[in-house]
Write a structure and sequence with these properties.
alpha+beta, 8 helices, 22% strand, elongated, FAD, steroid dehydrogenase activity, acting on the CH-CH group of donors, oxidoreductase, EC 1.3.5.4
């Protein structure tokens, strides 16, 4: 059960909010452990240090893939190819060209190897690009997180997802989003973009002693960047912000907070009145010291734009006809997400289209074998 990230204790009971009550043990590592166990069970070879560089196409049919294995180019002949190699989030050039120049400054939360190669290879053989190429999944991540994820310090430990219970200010000391617009699962993947728009690509999540015990566990890790002070004035002096505006913004926010019951496990409607942007839920006055600030910047998770596939996982060409022998799954499929992303849905998409693409490729291969045998 995903207690630590998706529930709060109220009246001695765990109350879940926002979905995702169940998680895989050990998260991504646990998922990969299951997949590798299955590959070993059925005897699938896995090539490491091997990079696919080109699809082999004959008469508009994919018949193989060229792989750079070590220092040798190897052409793997196959009845079909399934591309499941992620988006272009780790490719600065593609980010800049498609999402915007400012995205060169974004931290890459995951692997450095998702550089859009699979998408480019498919487009080189006529695949149609599809979806919101100007969009992506991006979150608020620790300002001092590594510029790209690695296995020693995975990007997940740097996320800062308790912002619905904060006030977020930029370097000018101003708020810029409705922190409590919705449950975290429905805003976190678009608020990274809003942070990137701020001066210096930075924002500060401000909390007081009332909510500090409710913050997610990543706020307590040694890797977390944190500022702490007994007064708001002292806290402002620790940050590279407009201190006068910082204090004015919090004063105006405190004055705008409406009375009501604070219920962090649900949308409680306890908001503000008379300020822009408003805070629609979970508005508590920031008044009980000590006070805390967590600096965040934008971390990109994956790109939304990708390839056009049909409901069987078949990659489509520019005339929206299936490219024989070519299938795709996962983040490189375009058209699944636009503007926003509900938490956990990428895993569901990968599972569904992975199954579809695998089944379709197997069926395609079987039909080819039967055709050859019949002749």
């Amino acid at each position: 059960m995903n207690y630590e990230n998706q529930s709060f204790v109220q009246a001695g009971k765990r109350n879940f909010w926002g979905g995702l009550p169940i998680k895989t043990e050990d998260k991504g590592v646990g998922l990969m452990r299951q997949l590798f166990a299955r590959t070993e069970e059925i005897g699938i070879d896995v090539w490491y240090d091997s990079r696919a560089v080109e699809l082999v196409s004959e008469h508009n049919t994919i018949t193989g893939v060229v792989v750079e294995k070590g220092h040798t180019m190897v052409t793997v002949q196959t009845s079909g190819v399934i591309l499941a190699c992620g988006g272009f989030e780790a490719n600065k050039k593609m980010r800049s060209e498609n999402i915007g120049e400012e995205w060169e400054a974004a931290i890459v939360r995951g692997t450095e190897f998702n550089t859009g190669d699979g998408i480019s290879m498919a487009m080189a053989v006529g695949a149609q690009k599809f979806g919101q190429w100007s969009g992506c999944h991006s979150i608020g991540t620790d300002y001092n997180a590594p510029k790209v994820g690695d296995f020693t310090k995975p990007g997940d430990i740097f996320k800062k997802h308790s912002y619905p219970y904060s006030v977020m200010l930029n370097n000018e000391g101003k708020r810029f989003v409705d922190e409590g617009a919705d449950l975290r699962n429905y805003t976190y993947a678009k608020y990274g973009r809003e942070v990137l728009k701020q001066p210096g690509h930075v924002a500060y999540q401000i909390y007081d002693a009332q909510v500090r015990p409710m913050l997610r566990k990543e706020y307590d890790l040694e890797e977390a960047t944190i500022y702490k002070a007994d007064t708001l004035g002292e806290l402002a002096s620790l940050l590279p912000v407009n201190q006068t505006q910082f204090l004015k913004t919090i004063e105006e926010y405190n004055s705008a907070v409406q009375d009501g019951e604070y219920r962090p496990a649900e949308k409680d409607g306890k908001g503000t009145k008379g300020i822009t942007p408003p805070k629609s839920n979970w508005a508590l006055r920031i008044e009980q010291g000590p006070f805390y600030a967590f600096p965040v910047t934008c971390g990109i998770t994956f790109s939304f734009g990708g390839l056009h596939v049909d409901t069987t996982g078949h990659v489509l060409d520019k005339e929206e006809q299936p490219i024989k022998g070519l299938f795709a799954a996962g983040e490189m499929i375009g058209g699944i997400f636009y503007e926003n992303y509900p938490g956990g849905s990428g895993l569901m998409s990968g599972a569904v289209f992975g199954k579809l693409a695998g089944s379709s490729a197997a069926r395609y291969t079987q039909e080819k074998v039967e055709t050859i045998n019949n002749h």
